[in-house]
Prior knowledge:
It is a single chain. The protein is mainly β. It has a domain at 39-203: Carboxypeptidase-like, regulatory domain (Immunoglobulin-like, Sandwich). Helices cover 12% and strands 47% of the residues. The longest helix is centred in the first third of the chain and has 26 residues, at 10-35.
Amino acid sequence: MNKYVQKLTLRRKYRALKNCFLVFFIGLSLMGTGLAQQPQSAAVTINVKDTPLRNVMRIIEDQSGFSFMYSSNIVNLNHRVSVSLTNVSPERALQEIFKNTGISYAIQDKIITLNKTVVRSRQAERQSITVSGLVTDDENAALVGVSVSLKDDPSRNAVTGYNGRYVLPNVATDAILEFRHLGRMTMEVPVQERSNIDVQMEITKLMLEDVKVIGIGYGSVQKRDLTGAVASIDGDKLAAFSNTTISQSLQGRLPGVEVRMTSSEPGATPQIRIRGTNSIMGGNEPLWIIDGFPGMPNMLNVADIESVEVLKDASATAIYGSRGANGVIIVTTKQGVVGRAQVDYNGRYGVSTVARRLPLMMANEYMQYQNILNVNALGVPYFSQEDIDYAGVGYDWQELAFRHARTNEHSVSLKGGTDKTRVALSSSYYDEEGIIQGSDINRVSLHGNINQKISDKLSIISNLIYTRTKHNKQSGILSSFVMAPPTAGPYDDEGNYTDFRTLYPFSPSGQNNPEAQIREKSYLWTSNRTMANAAVLYKPIEELTFRIALNANMSNARQDDYTTTKYPTSTGDASIDQSEDLSLNNDNTVTYAQKIGLHDFSIMGGVTYEQSESKGTSMSGHGFLNDLGGTYNIAAAEMKDTPTASYSKWAMLSYLGRLNYTYNDKYLATVSFRADGSSRYSKGSKWGYFPSAAFAWRVKEESFLKDIDIINNLKLRAGYGESGNTAISPYATLDLLTPMSTIFGKEEYQLYHPSSFFNHALKWETTAQWNFGIDIGMWQNRLRLTADYYIKNTYDLLNNVELPESSGFISGTKNIGEMRNKGFEFQADARLLDRVVKWDLSLNASFNKNEVYSLPFDEDVPGTKRSITIINDYINLLREGQPIGVFYGYVEDGYDAAGSIRYKNLDNDSGGLINELDKDIIGDPNPFCTFGLSTSVAYKNFTLSAFAQGSYGNDIYSLAMASLTHNYSGNRGINTFRDVLYDYWTPENPNATYPALTAAATTSLRMSDRFVYDGSYIRLRNVELSYNIPLKGVNWIQSMGVYCSVQNLFTFSSYPFYNPDVNTYGGSSSVSQGVDNFSYPSAKGYTTGVRMQF
Length: 1094
């Protein structure tokens, strides 16, 4: 690659990524120091004489990791203490220090609470009593299975029953009770002659991960029982940052989930890839499951999300059969809770602006630049020196293009219920202005959930989600802004729009006035989406559950485009596109779960049916007398195009089953199978079969590890599975006819002709995947690590290929090849400090290598041609042995004697002719690694959090840079980068960055490595400071917090255009990846907000 391709050296490329890992592992080393002070292994040595109590307490805190909690009215910190203890437990030290002081202590987790000692007689101290009480959770619900024992004699114990109550006889009045429950803080409570002791046990967040319930499709399991590769994140973490959609919120959050922005415009849908690209023709987007049914993520308000689970390996996704090849994202919305009604309010206000601006020419520089071009073309300059001196800075079009955009977001939710009925209701309002004038999005969402228990055996769950969205877009306006000449403003002296086409003799014929585009062109998209479902659960016995569920997804959308009569060259143009979609689902499953001795298993089987119907209509008109009514007055157009309509329908019937089995809480297995029958395929190929199996070994439960306290969890996983992709249109296997008209004699006749190639042999596109993983938890789960290695092969790839002329068709769909993805991913979470200051750190990284493994006849498959004024060629390519969508073009070889770009003659033909045979692989849009790093530090009521994410090893092909900096011929009159004027080729500057300023230097421009840039970047996505306000004496507010945050504060990248996280055509093509053609820039935002709970 030549010196003009702006790539980092290997050492510089690794530096940014290495720093992220360095921060993480430095944190781990600090954590090691903190972990050495864990109470379980702490030993205290004290040798003091006549020392104030406060000093002795500080010694215990430093050596043990405990913290004291007390009232200064109770504890005399100046009390003098003399004690000599060596390597004793903290409890033993406390007994000696507070002996005869009138102070008692209680230990809960690592907090020592000091209170006055209840005065008792010697006879009372020797008494034994029966102690009973109630144990509840954070929400005052009874806790079942809590172990209550004597601290000094754990064999004396009791267990709480279904009502949360316990009874423990013959307890000494000065004994200490110990309460233990999986996932909750262990509590130590002195009896102090009390016969009734009620306890409320709090969740231990560090241990909660093991018992968290994870959705796995048609069921759920505890996280500790997972056998497949499943990543999860709580909804509260996603809602903490300002994002338009849940898809944006997932960027950098989970290993194996790559999120790339096709545009930073408000409402834009990012591209999501789970473990790489699997398909050529078919969509590579994952399947979204919302509350158990397929849905659209854009209809969700992030504040309504309880949790998100991502099923990544085929052993997990195979249960979704032909729709699971690209991974499955399961979204669970918030449900009602038992207890009094709880109202939550979240509100935020933000201001954002463009994250960076381009170094474009000022007016006087633009004139000098055009003079050089004019002298080289015609021999004389166009602008006089007086004009240049007078011009100065000129008009800043970027100042007009970008604004300080406002964002308002408000959401209110209500949760509550009884043991019979639980209800959750919420509404939200989101309004975001785009940083480019004329772009914005407005969304209103409603969500309701009711869980009704009819009887002990019968219950009904219902959900409703409604979203209305209005989205104003600005299509293709960015290029008009950056190319507009700085010597002229938007209006001429008479107040009319400046016509840039006739501004100068060298002005491009197609150059638009950006102000006119903003004011006189509108692109409004409006949609209404509704998702409604209900499920009936019947449990004739405790072990058996029948579930019948129905779901309906309905949406209607309308696109209104209008160009007014005031726009230059327009007499008024209007178009309307409307669409309606209806999807129906019916799931019928039965689950049987049983535990017999050491054997724990559950069996699930079911039948599902899905049907989808889509309708669309389009109409357009041209020529209007006025602009009253806009698109709603399309009937008044002088010329109306023929209206068009479309319709499609498909259906799928499925049979599925799964077995989960655990032996002795050590060995776990999951086996599943699904058969899908799709209407898309012809007879003989309608059914696809997708098996999977996964196994896990909980090594921690083996005798050789069980007593090693430092390790809380060690589990090994392995699995294999197959899933599919219905990557063809509903009628791809039918011989379609298209209407046309023809003239016989003097009459016009309507007829039909074949329009598609009928391939009855099309097969399912299938992805088979191996996965090997490990889960580790250490130091009471203060360190958690999950790592996976996978090999994923997709075969019978579906794609359109050229057909022989004898077939009568140009192209058709065939199964053409194979593709492979293999990689490694990990996530590490650590609680580095857990005392007065709490510090959490999380790091995830994903490494994936894609390879097109096989193509028919070893022939290359070119991508779509991309055309700009000076180049018309394809950029991306499919080639056997290469990653999907590699950049394919010419390799530069310096300049010739006239300053034009020279290209290497790679085929070494004697004539030196540069042609297609001289092309080579010049870049790869697929990242070698994507990563995310988050941290939070909490002190008292303050919390400071930060989140960064990035990508390493991918390239960008910048059509934007080609158009803007090398357009000396067809678009000569446009503005460009300042350094073009100061670093172009001349005989005196033969190693310049840019070619000679002549039309000839760029008329022969080609798709070459000149426009390939390193796409690696690290972005500080969010920094937030929050404060929980103390609410003493305020009973009607349970909690209140305020916060301020900054989004996209810094981006470290060598890419010279607006945004390195760019993929202009990624949303419409699996092959055309990594191209930037004036994509919407990213924004830097400032947000302040409040969170309240009533």
